[in-house]
Amino acid sequence: MRVYNTLSREKEEFQPLEDIVRIYSCGPTVYQYAHIGNMRTYVFMDLLRKVLQFNNYNLKHVMNITDVGHLVSDMDDGEDKLNKSARLQQKSPYEIAKFYTEVFMSDLQALHIQTPEIIVYATDHITEMIAFVEDLVNRGVAYETSDGIYFDSAKFEGYGKLSRLDLEEQQAGARVAVNTEKHNPADFALWKKAPPEHIMQWPSPWGQGFPGWHIECSTMAEKYLGDAFDIHTGGVDHIPVHHENEIAQSESRLGHQWVKYWMHGEFMMVNGGKMSKSLGNAYRLADLQERGFSPLHFRYFCLNAHYRNKLNFTWDAMAGAKTSYDRLHAAVFAHKNGTDEACHTEADLLRTQFAEAVNDDLNAPKALGFLWNMARLPAKSQYIYDLILACDSILSLGLEATPVVETVSLEADVEAMVEARRVARANKDWAASDRIRDELKAQGILIEDTAQGMKWRKA
RNA sequence: GGCGCCAUAGCCAAGUGGUAAGGCAGAGCUCUGCAAAAGCUCGAUUCCCCAGUUCAAAUCUGGGUGGCGCCUCCA
């Protein structure tokens, strides 16, 4: 299989360092609800897992839960996000973290995203982080200021190699130097000294404090995956700061290349623009469900675009994905227990093309096209059904489930109307029959007469 | 000011040198009392514009135009 490596900006043949594939994924900061843009990145992460497994690799995958240390500003002087959320909601940071972590894990499950083998919490690794920072200080690449311990970006010559940003050029911009104690603008906090009112704080060689945001990933990745591993994933927004800083910390300490492949998921747009809370378009999975879109409809929506391209979310596009998914599901189900003589050569070819597509840098949209071609094969055959389910072990769209006609529990009076229409139809009173159907439609209930009798579903 | 990405039918979206996947919406047909649902068929002579390279370009090069993102937190 081939994957696009942000470090080289090229697709590369995937070759693991050892038999077992080691992955680290930047997980959520659990101070608020995750929105669908966040979830898109985890669908991408899951697709990567599934394709690796399809290629018979065993995985050791670590995902962190950031429950401390992520400041509201990158100026290294803002408030910790957990701390702030806790203050606003008048709860303890641990309660906040626990609540949002549970919602997050539940969303993952709903989206058929496999839980990585190892889930780790930043607050469980404070001791290791302090040791990591001490080591950097001892190596002379970090220094102390009045408010914390900072990494000296000038001491790491590879700084900027992931984002390919020229620091000198960047400084010509509007960036405001707020911390005059920093040696270089790009220097970042490894450890912050905590003011007394700061809720989350731990003792350290530098007094009471809390860890910088970037140190947690470097520390936990090393603890669970060793001093080098295969793939590090995250959103594209993490390339310039977070991941650049992780590399600086870890490679300064390890003295060699830390991560072989960096993979990043692109952003989700809304109506052609950025998704943001202030615009009120940072939808959650729950918002979609309120509008009648299931998590799997959303997964299908995500898989219909390549993970490295921006995906434009609109309600129209979402509705299209829903219809498309439901029809695909029904078309696939038509093959179950099918006894037609299927052309195995044709079906096998599509299966091969499907595999080639996912192995080519996780090209799910292309693969989905082949899946549709399989589902639309005229001969209905169990053979094809099995092939499709094998493909779905990668896409995880839940196609093995029996499609259920979406029915609504009927109110007593609605039930009476349905019965009245049944009688009208039996009497061939088409006028009455159509009138009742229109009335029900006005109430949002669609009537369908099928060979199996009258069916109804929500509009 | 710097860096980068993108521009394919009404919409979403693959395709990165060999003559435009797939889906949604739409149109026609079949079927059903009429509808709906379902099935079948149709749909870009063309890939933002201009020039160039090539036997051959949506795909490569150069120049435009337009949109978006990053350089502040962000998946």
Compile the SSE list and pairings.
Elements: E1 2-5, E2 10-13, E3 21-25, H1 36-54, E4 59-65, H2 81-89, H3 93-110, E5 118-121, H4 126-138, E6 142-145, E7 148-151, H5 167-170, E8 188-193, E9 209-211, H6 213-225, E10 229-235, H7 239-254, E11 259-265, E12 268-270, E13 273-274, H8 285-290, H9 295-303, E14 311-313, H10 315-333, H11 344-359, H12 364-375, H13 382-395, H14 412-426, H15 430-442, E15 445-450, E16 453-458
Parallel strand pairs: 3-4, 3-10, 4-5, 10-11, 12-14
Antiparallel strand pairs: 1-2, 6-7, 7-8, 8-9, 12-13, 15-16
This protein binds one RNA strand of 75 nucleotides through helix 1, helix 7, strand 13, helix 10 and helix 12.
Provide an overview of this structure.
The protein has a 5-stranded parallel sheet with strand order 5-4-3-10-11, sandwiched between helices. A 4-stranded antiparallel sheet has the order 6-7-8-9. It is an alpha/beta fold and 459 residues long. The chain starts with a strand and ends with a strand. It has helices at 36-54, 81-89, 93-110, 126-138, 167-170, 213-225, 239-254, 285-290, 295-303, 315-333, 344-359, 364-375, 382-395, 412-426, 430-442, and strands at 2-5, 10-13, 21-25, 59-65, 118-121, 142-145, 148-151, 188-193, 209-211, 229-235, 259-265, 268-270, 273-274, 311-313, 445-450, 453-458. It is built from 15 helices and 16 strands. The radius of gyration is 27 Å and the shape is globular. It binds one RNA strand of 75 nucleotides through α1, α7, β13, α10 and α12.
